[in-house]
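TL;DR need structure tokens for one chain.
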Amino acid sequence: MAFLGIEQSLTGRRWIGCDPAVERMAEGLAQQAGLPLAVARVLAERGVDAADAAGFLLPKLRDLLPDPLRLRDMEIAAERLVQAALEGQRIAIFADYDVDGGSSAALLLDWLRGQGRDATLYIPDRIDEGYGPNVPAMTSLAADHDLIICVDCGTLSHEALAAAQAADVIVLDHHLGGETLPPALAVVNPNRADEDGDLGYLCAAGVVFLTLVQAGRVLRDRQKPEPDLMALMDLVALATVADVAPLVGVNRAFVRQGLAVMARRQRPGLVALSDVARLDGPPSAFHLGFLLGPRINAGGRVGRADLGALCLSARDPHEAERLARQLDELNTERRAIEAAVRSEALAQVEARGDARLSWAAGQGWHPGVVGIVAARVKEATDRPSVVIGVDGGIGKGSARSVPGVDLGRAIQRLAREGLLIKGGGHEMAAGLTVAEEMIAPAMARLGELLARDLDNRTGAHDLRISGLLEGSGATPALYRQLEDAGPFGQAAPAPRFVFADQLIDSASTMGDNHLRLSFRSPGSPALVAVAWGAMSGPLGPALIGAKGRRFHLAGKLDLSTWGGRERLRLRLDDAAPA
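>> reply
TL;DR here they are.
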């Protein structure tokens, strides 16, 4: 039965409440553990019982951190890293140009500086070189370095790594591996074909952190001082959230601990980025994913690929401020480019009307924004999405998936079948290069490959509701208790509440594309709701003239801080007439 009987909301979705068994478990948890029912529902949805509630609400790294040696080649990689650091060998770091790659590079740079060493940072240009190691770059690096560490890339780079035989190569990655490994001294990757996959949810920075944990053991065995790894947790948290890694297992502890480290404002790069993003108050997973992540990514998308990593690893506050301002300006430029491509892509998707796969391709579309446009198309259509920019007869694209649909494996299969020049990724995101004339047949085949997963996907257009909430119960104290059940993100959605039968006091636009509402119910104070990007979809136009009318409002609680004052508001996801 639909929640509050809402079969079709303003965005065309049916509202679905908690499973009755989950609701009963939540009521029991609330009584046994002394928790608010709203918090107990979050735990019940995660399958947490009363005995484990305290540990879940306070995840500790020492309890959740896996033994690094569970990963193949870890011992070899850590020993070689320590050897290079202690002997003063020449080290190069080859990193991907996104947040995960930049954070992974910054982790290694920080660790090496703790050993009194420096390293060459190499991040390929997205347009000129594309993703991952390439033969010219690896040949050049191998000629001048003893050790090359590839982070967030390299698992499928057989030819490029073969060109680097003059140096030892270590790969620290998380992307899906192929049937064979590249020619490297060590390939540490929880998604290697010969791994059990239990740690497959880690991002590359998580893999790098585990490598540094094992390197610390090696240093201890050699009676050498160990760096403070906890001071690096802010970088691991940033990468975990920005790379949309599932917030389960040790990732929960990574993010919770990392946010606490970040709140101390000790890393110049993150301080500068927070300031240009006008982050006023304690950082949250939302801030990492939607304020800081896009700015760091902007360098790799439309500017210099290494700007993000340089900002994250900067030690001088003035240098960090300069880099952060540059990234902020590039992010503004990126938004303008993205808006134009998004409009064209959505028009193509609508005209094509494919029920399984949303895809679009265009001449001259900037390759730096196709990934974020693919994400926007996925959000708009609730289907796996591929967006491809074509230049000189070659298409370079990015793909984003929906829960339950393994896009990375399907893209790899297209490459094996010869429909792509190359392609790879992980379950939720992938990249590809394809000849222009092969785009249509490749997309047709991709739709076929995804059909089974899509057919087995239930409730794709449902909006999950955690429960009702009264305006008087929506307090900063409840928000903080809910945050203890987080962090929220991929595989751990934030609770979504419905404020039923609310009178709309005012409705207005914010900026070009956002909606702001003031609403209240009898006997409760007025609350503010913000719907980001709502004016480009059905929600904003339907509510902009809603003053004086009553609606059920569905969304997630958000605590904003302005001028030192805390204000609770609703991040509005959907609405329905009351």
